[in-house]
Design a protein that fits this description.
Blueprint lengths: L3 E12 L2 E12 L3 E5 L6 H9 L8 E6 L2 E3 L4 H6 L2 E4 L11 H5 L6 E2 L2 E2 L1 H14 L16 H13 L5 E5 L7 H16 L3 E5 L3 H7 L2 E6 L2 E7 L7 H9 L18 E12 L4 E12 L3 E5 L6 H9 L6 E8 L2 E3 L4 H6 L2 E4 L3 H5 L6 H6 L7 E2 L2 E2 L1 H14 L16 H13 L5 E5 L7 H16 L3 E5 L3 H7 L2 E6 L2 E7 L5 H9 L1
Parallel strand pairs: 3-10, 3-11, 6-9, 9-10, 15-22, 15-23, 18-21, 21-22
Antiparallel strand pairs: 1-2, 1-4, 4-5, 7-8, 11-12, 13-14, 13-16, 16-17, 19-20, 23-24
Helix pairs in contact: 4-5
Length: 507
C-alpha cells in the first residue's frame, strides 16, 4: 500500500522570462502535517497552484499522483472533487455576503433545486465552532469581520467540503498568538481525524511546533525534506537551507544609538467609531523621538491598527478627540495628504488591498504618493520617475527584471519593499509600519529589519505595529502595549519580556 497521499514528480512551471519551478519533487505521507518553506519567490505558492488546478494540466510538465492515481486537473473544481481544498494567502471571500453564504458558496446545500438556508445556517454554525469562532453570528457580513476572523472563515469554508488534503498558504499570517495556537491545535485534531495538511508558513517557530515533515524550496527547486521523527528539524537548519547561508541573528543590532527631540506625540487621544457607535481608543498618550523605533504590541482587536488609522487622518473613519503634535507643532490631519505634508507616512498591514495597486508596475507604485516632486506645471517628468523608481529598486534590493514589472506578480517580500519605497519617497520624518513583515520569509525579514535600522540611524523615527512579540522585542527601543483601546503599559527594550507584554495585553 502506498504510504503517500500525494506525489508531485519533476514539476516544472515557466512564466514569461522566469522558470518558477524546476523539476520539483514533493511527497506527502497520509495523515501527516507537512510544512512547505522557502523564501518569497522560491515557488511554494506556484507549486500549490499547480496541485490545485489554478495552473491546469498542460501549463506545466511533470506528474501529480494523488492516492496512487495520476491527476490531470483542468481547474479548481477537479482538485476539489479529488478531495483537495486550498486556502490561499489572498482570501477568496465575498465581503458583501454573509458568513454562511461564503462558507457554502459554490457547494450550496439544496432541497431539490432550492437552497436550504436553514440547514446552511445550521451547518455554518457548526463549522464556525470547529475553527473557534463560536461568538461569530453566521449571518454577519464578511466585511464586518477583522482579517484574522476572515482567515478562520476561509478555513471553515474548506472544512465544509469533503476534504482529504487541506492546503493552507500562510494561514496564521493575520492571526495573533492565541488564534495561531488555536489553528495549530485544530490542524492536530484534523490529523487525528485522518485529514492530511500541507502548510506554507514563514513562522518557523510554528513550523517546528507542528510539522511532521518540512520540505524546503529555493529558487524553484527542491532542496531537502526534513523529518521531525528523525530529529532533523530546527530553526537554524531550516534557515540555512532556505537562504543558502546561516543567519546568526535575525534581529540585527544597532550600535551607538542616538535619540533626538520628540518628533511625534499624542495626548489624551480618543477615537469614536460611528459604525459601531462607541469609542475604540481611550485617552492614549505616547511619544516617539528622532532616531527611535517604537513598538506597539497587543492582541488582535486591541486598537493598534485603529490608532495608526486615526493618526494618519483617514477621512470620515473616526471622530477624534485629543492632541497631536509633530515636531512640536499641533496638527489635525483631515486626510492622509495632510499627514504626508507634515512628514508622517503609513505602511498599511494590508499591502495588497490598500497599500499597492497590483495591476500597475513597480515604477508607478513607488512614485504615486509624491508625483508633485516629479512634475512641473502639472506635467510628469518621466525620466525622473524612472530614475527614482530605479533608485529604490536598487537600494531596497527589489528582486524583479525591471521597474516595469507588475507588482501583482512579485513575491510578498518584494511587494513589501515596493510599499516601503513608495513611502520613503515622500521623505517622511515619522514612518508608521503596520505588520511590516507579515507573510514574508526570514531572508526578506532580515533585509527589512536592516533597512529599519539604517533609516533610524539617518534620523527617521519609526512606529512599528506587530503581532509577533519576538519582532517587537528584537527591534524596538521602547514598547507600548495596547489593550482594549488603552495604553496598558510602557517598557524599555531592556525591561521587555514576552510574559510582561502578554500580562499587560490581557489585563
Amino acid at each position: 500500500m502506498n504510504k503517500y497521499i500525494l506525489e508531485m514528480r519533476s514539476i516544472t512551471k515557466t512564466f514569461p522570462g522566469v522558470k518558477a519551478l524546476s523539476n520539483v519533487n514533493f511527497q506527502v505521507e497520509k495523515g501527516e502535517i507537512h510544512c512547505l518553506v522557502g523564501e518569497n519567490g522560491a515557488g511554494k505558492s506556484t507549486l500549490m497552484k499547480v496541485l490545485s488546478g489554478v495552473y491546469p494540466f498542460g501549463e506545466y510538465s511533470g506528474d501529480i499522483v494523488l492516492n496512487g492515481e495520476v491527476q490531470k486537473h483542468s481547474g479548481i473544481s477537479d482538485s476539489e472533487k479529488a478531495g483537495i481544498a486550498i486556502i490561499y494567502q489572498e482570501l477568496a471571500l465575498v465581503p458583501e455576503l454573509s458568513v454562511y453564504e461564503n462558507i457554502f458558496l459554490g457547494h450550496e446545500i439544496k432541497k431539490g433545486r432550492i437552497i436550504d438556508w436553514n440547514e446552511t445556517i445550521l451547518r455554518a454554525g457548526a463549522m464556525l465552532k470547529k475553527v473557534k469562532l463560536n461568538n461569530v453570528n453566521p449571518a454577519s457580513k464578511i466585511k464586518d469581520l477583522g482579517v484574522g476572523k476572515q482567515q478562520l472563515v476561509e478555513i471553515a469554508k474548506a472544512l465544509s467540503k469533503d476534504v482529504k488534503l487541506l492546503i493552507l498558504d500562510e494561514p496564521t499570517a493575520a492571526l495573533n498568538e492565541d488564534d495561531s495556537e488555536n489553528l495549530l491545535k485544530l490542524l492536530r485534531e484534523l490529523k487525528e481525524q485522518g485529514v492530511t495538511s500541507i502548510m506554507i508558513s514563514h513562522k518557523l517557530k510554528e513550523v517546528i511546533a507542528i510539522a511532521d515533515t518540512v520540505t524546503v524550496l529555493r529558487d524553484g527547486q527542491t532542496i531537502c525534506s526534513l523529518s521531525a521523527a528523525k530529529g532533523e528539524i530546527s530553526e537554524g537548519v531550516i534557515i540555512k537551507h532556505m537562504v543558502g547561508r546561516e543567519i546568526d541573528n535575525i534581529y540585527p543590532k544597532r550600535e551607538n544609538k542616538e535619540f533626538g527631540d520628540i518628533v511625534l506625540e499624542v495626548k489624551d487621544w480618543c477615537a469614536y467609531d460611528p459604525k459601531i457607535g462607541r469609542d475604540i481608543l481611550h485617552n492614549l498618550n505616547f511619544k516617539v523621538r528622532t532616531g527611535e523605533i517604537i513598538g506597539i504590541a497587543g492582541l488582535m482587536g486591541a486598537g493598534r491598527t485603529e490608532l495608526a488609522h486615526s493618526i494618519f487622518g483617514n477621512p470620515g473613519e473616526y471622530r477624534i478627540k485629543g492632541e497631536l503634535f509633530v515636531l512640536g507643532q499641533k496638527k489635525h490631519f483631515k486626510s492622509p495628504n495632510d499627514a504626508i505634508k507634515a512628514g508622517v507616512a503609513y505602511v498599511t498591514e494590508d499591502r495588497k488591498g490598500n497599500g499597492l495597486i497590483l495591476i500597475d508596475d513597480i515604477k508607478q507604485n513607488i512614485t504615486i504618493a509624491n508625483l508633485k516632486s516629479l512634475s512641473q506645471q502639472g506635467i510628469l517628468n518621466k525620466n525622473e520617475e524612472v530614475k527614482t523608481a530605479n533608485y529604490y529598486k536598487t537600494s531596497l534590493n527589489i528582486k524583479a527584471p525591471s521597474i516595469e514589472q507588475k507588482v501583482g506578480n512579485l513575491s510578498g517580500g518584494n511587494q513589501q519593499k515596493v510599499s516601503l519605497g513608495k513611502w520613503l519617497f515622500v521623505k517622511p520624518n515619522v514612518l508608521i509600519l503596520d505588520e511590516p513583515t507579515r507573510g514574508i520569509d526570514v531572508g526578506a525579514k532580515f533585509e527589512i529589519y536592516t533597512l529599519m535600522n539604517e533609516l533610524v540611524k539617518q534620523g527617521l523615527s519609526i512606529i512599528m505595529i506587530s503581532s509577533e512579540l519576538p519582532e517587537v522585542m528584537g527591534m524596538s527601543d521602547r514598547i507600548y502595549v495596547v489593550s482594549e483601546g488603552k495604553i496598558a503599559g510602557e517598557l524599555t527594550a531592556e525591561e521587555a519580556t514576552q510574559e510582561k507584554i502578554m500580562k499587560m495585553a490581557t489585563n
